Amino acid sequence: MAQTVIAPGIATPGITRRFAAVVGELWKDKAGFFGLLVMSSLILVAISAPLLAPHDPAAQSLSARLDPPFWLEGGSLEHPLGTDNLGRDVLSRIIFGSRVSLIVGLGVVAIAGTVGTVLGLLAGYNGGRVDSVIMRWLDTQLAFPGLLLYLVILSVVRPSLLVLIVILPINAWMVYALLVRGVVLSAKETPYVEAAEIVGARPKRIIFRHILPNLAAPLLTLAVLEFASAILAEAALSFLGLGIQPPEMSWGLDVAIGREYVFNAWWLVTFPGIAIAVTVLGANLFASWLRIVADPHEREKRFAAGLGTTGGRGA
Amino acid sequence: MPDSPLDVPLLAVDDLAVSFFTRRGVVQAVRGASFTLDRGQTIGLVGESGSGKSVTSRAVMGLIELPGRIVGGDIRWKGKSLLGKDGQAYSDRIRGKEISIIFQDPMTSLNPLMKVGDQIGEVLGHHLGMDRSSADKRAVELLDLVGISFPRQRVRQFPYEFSGGMNQRVAIAMALASEPELLIADEPTTALDVTIQAQILELIQQLQTDLGLAVLLITHDLGVVAGLCQRLAVMYAGRIVETGKAEEIYSDPGHPYAWGLIGSTPRLDVVVPKLVSIAGAPPDLIRPPIGCAYAPRCPLAVEMCVQVSPELIEHLPNRKVACHRAFDIRTVGAPVAAGS
Amino acid sequence: MGRFLLKRILQGAIVVIGVTVVVFVVTRLIGDPVRVMLPLEATAEQRAAFAAQLGFDRPLYVQFFDFIGSALRFDFGNSLWQDRPALEIVLEALPRTLLLVGASMVLAVIIAIPLGILTSLKPGGFLDRLLVTLSLTGLSMPNFWLGLLLIVIFGVQLQIFPIFGSGTLMHAVLPAVTFALPSAARLVMLTRSAMIDELNKSYVALVKAKNVPFRRLVGAHAFRNAAVPVMTMTGWEIIRALAGYSVVVETVFAWPGLGFLAIQSITRQDLILLQAIVFVVALMIITINILMDLAYKYIDPRIKLT
After folding, report:
1. Burial class (CB in 10 A: 0-12, 13-18, 19+), B269
2. Distances from the Cα of A159 to the Cαs of A110, A241, C251, in angstroms?
3. Per-residue confidence (pLDDT) for residue A313, from 0 to 100
């Protein structure tokens, strides 16, 4: 339960106990806990990559090409997850590759989230012409082949990290706008916003004081999910050769390199792929935990479901 | 199925207890409800929302699902229990066949994507073994019976093409399709316009006399039961606090809550000096009070009411009241605003 | 109905023109088509000749109307790479992609709907938690990686299926499965939540009270209603597969469909071919959207086509 009783006179600051309560609940939901663990590891690994990586990820070694992981014959703990075709350490490349994933994920979420939220607020709050223009635009763009648009752009612009962060939001803003508009429309119907309007509170004030708090939980959940989508999109484009370019490092790019060696060095595609899958899975699990925590009905259902598995039907 | 002897009541609810196991704790929604219903009889189960009347009706239908659970008491249909392992099988046999139910909001209680004729027809097919064409014919007759004009065209329409009142008629037709002996009407008019309410109540009353149905009418509105029910059971905080003949309870309520409820109901046939409301709110059923649940709101409460929970006792012939100060309300006189 | 179709086709035309405009703007304004299409070592004379040959030396507005006009006549010009009409190449590849996407969507729906319904019947139970975890894992896997894993396992280790290219039906198995699994995972989750929503509705309570067989309650009542969002999602999956995943999956398996062609047109610096592909895919998406609207009407009589 998020609410905790903060007794006066106790030295522990309220915020610590509150945090402890949230973590305690997270611990009960193993999947959500795993999600949080993955998300925080990603951040930690990305920040401290130079400390964690056993080798320089770009260092080539002709004597140690295509070494298998340590538990296979010919492998050694020197390169725990083996080496690639140029003798570079797979583990170190995965550790450094996390940086691109994190930066792309955060960058795309920040840009798309801001643009989408602002347009969604405008459409939902103003209604009328603004709403119909934005929605018409959205409907048209939804019918637009998103990835092909990226391809067209990337065929004339040299791809890079910055380009990815700029072009991925072109499609990603739409979900935020739809979500925000929906929440604003239903929030507008609630008595407290109507009352605020009658009292004469200014529109901006109403939005910030009354509607935004309602948006926080669903927006955060969506942002985590979209963080995962951005990582997947970056990996796919890099795999196709239209994203991160060598010598920069990216998990998708490493899978593309490994693809040439699937016959004799399966670890080259496997480990970077696992890194992508685990990161995305972690974000998905964390998002679904957030959704449940933010929704009292969901929490009640979970509780009831727990009854169903422990006890039988009564009477 | 062999019919049981006629001296056994059609439905007997005996000290029924239903709890809901929620995150906040165990909500004791029904904490000992007892009443009986005979063939062809009409009983009104009356109480505020949250008093446990709907839960009681769901329990009778065998529709209590997790997190809810029947934790005590018994429900007997024609003398045979509907609970326990054998009872469950018995309940599955009679549900929807011998007992049917209609719900509060007719607009949401019909499947929006199925033609009304098919929704009636599936009852006929399953419970009466009718084939498609005779079920279709019977569905038309049933719509006609509940007063829907052009039934032949209407069976092929969808619920969204009907008004609320019309959908409630459809729901009634569907409930009657299996030729039940008991119709449970759970707040059948609450979601409808006032003018439509009277029509639906008239329809239920007429069907009740024509078909010899027993009716269990669940409502928070005493005005609704007034014309329809021979007997009343007043429910408060999960318990039946008073049962008896409807007109006797109206004219001479034994329980202060029944008295308050009557006082707060607008009536056309009796001049009430002043409409009163009952002050306070029903108790938290996670931690129900040890004594009488109504004591905190009761104008007559004494120390014993807070300490000891009153039993449902027959104070007058066919008149049971669960109150330490039953009928003491007579000495207070005409209803006056309690508390406020 | 006629009015509805006309309206949707008009809307579709607006989208197609929008796509064409965007492609024009991106390729002519952001990028320089001559620089993109000619090798780096080309001389200035060669560049000028090339620009004149393809009309890139004319004023932009002339190029623009010419571009729109020929696009609407389905005339995109000759592919630089293969030196034959770009549309012809696209139409050769299209059926291969449609075959793959069609087969995989049928597979996804066949897997996902029964599982989604099954999990919804006892949410929180063992089977539910198992399948939800599996689905989440499935939709977290990048599909190019899933494809490579399948290649490693079934192609290299077990040697059951051919790995690259097309030709026999066996060639289609691994790519179709690669398409189908993530889609199936998303559809399981959606079917599950749509079913849970329906099963908690008041009309289902009444169906329970009517005591008709459980199979009928689930199929004819709850799923009939849940089918509306499930169908929307399936349509989305088809669109995503056509316009997105096909590029990745077909590249992994060297399956000669539209997606692989798109990547080849980029590596061969053939903008004309890429334009034709984008145009045809946009048309496909619009057609699917219109078909979906018609299907809605069939499923839900309340929907008015306007």
Report:
1. exposed
2. 20, 9, 19
3. 31
Instruction: Quote the distance between the C-alpha of residue C97 and its chain's center.
Output: 9
b/e per residue, C231-254, with b = 16+ CB within 10 A? bebbbbbbbbbbbbbbbbbbbbbe
Kind and range of the H or E element at A160?
Answer: none
The alpha carbon of residue C212 is apart from the nearest alpha carbon of chain B, in Å, by: 6
Q: How far is CA C155 from CA A27, A76, A260, A268, C168, in A?
A: 41, 28, 14, 17, 15
Q: How many Cβ atoms are within 10 Å of C31's Cβ, its own excluded?
A: 19
Chain B residues inside the 8 Å CB shell of A303: 21-23, 67
User: What average pLDDT values come out for chain A (315 residues) when binned by 10 residues?
Assistant: 40 63 72 89 92 86 81 82 86 93 96 95 86 86 78 87 94 92 80 75 71 82 93 94 91 92 87 95 90 72 57 31
Measured in angstroms, the CA of C113 and the nearest CA of chain A are apart by 21
Look up residue B300 and give its two tokens: 């007559």
Question: Given a contact as 3+ CB pairs under 8 Å, which chains touch C?
Answer: A, B
Q: Which of A39, A147, A171 to mutate to test the interface with C (most CBs of C within 10 A)?
A: A147
Spatial CA neighbour of C182 closest among C244, C232, C127: C244
Interface contact C26-A148, CB threshold 8 A: no
* Whether pTM exceeds 0.95: no
DSSP label at A210?
Answer: I
Sequence-ordered strand ranges (E) for chain B: 11-21, 26-37, 42-46, 68-77, 80-81, 99-102, 182-186, 214-219, 231-236, 239-245, 313-316, 319-321
> Mind telling me how many Å the CA of C132 is from chain B's nearest CA?
21
More confident residue, A202 or B87: B87
d(CA C121, CA C218): 9
| Closest chain A residue to the Cα of C260, Cα to Cα | A240
Q: How large is the average pLDDT for residues B14-43?
A: 88
Q: Which residues, given as ranges, of chain C have pLDDT below 50?
A: none
Q: Tokens 């009517």 map to which residue? A: C210
